């Protein structure tokens, strides 16, 4: 058990990309919140960002339409999710094709806010690196 605890603390420690992604923190300072609101299903609040990081003042919208690229990340997440759900439904649960697709549709609706937020935080982490305070 100790080995897994150490692995978790190494992978998700401050200064790693995973820390910023999992905790929805600023990719540069890992202290400021990335999103204005905590997780919500409210469509008006789900992807609202601060203009700048509250701690290090990093401008999140680096250029106009910066987060359009997050659509590609979202697409990859969705495809992986759909394939995994389909395999689980068909192979493990032995559901019909219709039941499998219904499960995929329900999962996509339930997980849409998670995917939107995750794709944005992954996208900005591809371009901004962590910088320790001087």
What is this structure, in a nutshell?
The chain is mainly α. The protein has one domain (2-125). It is built from 4 helices and no strands.
Characterise this structure.
- By secondary structure, the chain is mostly helical.
- It has one domain (2-125).
- The protein contains four helices and no strands.
- The protein has helices at residues 2-11, 17-23, 70-92, 97-125.
- It is globular.
- 13% of the residues are buried.
Give the tally of structural domains: 1
Mean pLDDT: 90
Radius of gyration: 17 Å
Order of helices and strands: HHHH
- Strand portion: under 5%
Low-pLDDT runs: none
Question: What can be said about the biggest beta sheet?
Answer: none
Overall geometry: globular
The first-to-last residue Cα distance is 36 Å
What brief labels describe this structure?
single chain, 134 residues, mainly alpha, globular
Could you give the topology of this structure?
Layout: H1 2-11, H2 17-23, H3 70-92, H4 97-125
